[in-house]
Amino acid sequence: MRGAQLILLRVCDHRPERRTPSSPLVRSLHKARMITAEEITRRLEAAFPGATVRVVDTTGTSDHFEALVVSSSFEGLNRVRQHQAVYSALGDAMRQEIHALALRTFTPESWERAQP
After folding, report:
1. Whose CA, among 25, 68, 110, 111, lies 20 to 30 Å from 31?
2. Are strands 64-70 and 100-106 parallel, antiparallel or unpaired?
């Protein structure tokens, strides 16, 4: 979003105040809503006890992630249902802090078969 600007109304005189994405106000708002790969890992491990969970911040911006979840909880669920279970475990973070999540889910058996 090159050249994107936020326009804020100053409360005292209602004149628009322009803020670029790199302004201190915008940076502070972004930082307040950041989530780490470690926090995502903790949430997923709590939701899927005994699971193997690996999460990587793919861009270094704390909003694009790649996750691998291997859990026996996925037995009998198709891929869509597995992903829905992960989204549910992450809750509001999927609607707020996490902008993109590349997700790979496996049962322990399907994970073993996927290994070279």
Report:
1. 68
2. parallel
pLDDT tens column, 9-65? 444 444 444 444 555 554 555 555 799 999 999 999 999 999 999 999 999 999 999
Reference 65, options 23, 113, 98; nearest CA is 98
May I ask the CATH architecture of the domain 37-114?
2-Layer Sandwich (3.30)
69 vs 51: CA distance, rounded Å: 7
Task: Give residue limits of the domains in the chain.
Answer: 1-32, 37-114
In b/e form, how buried is each residue of 82-96, taking b as 16+ CB within 10 angstroms? Answer: bbebbeebbeebeee
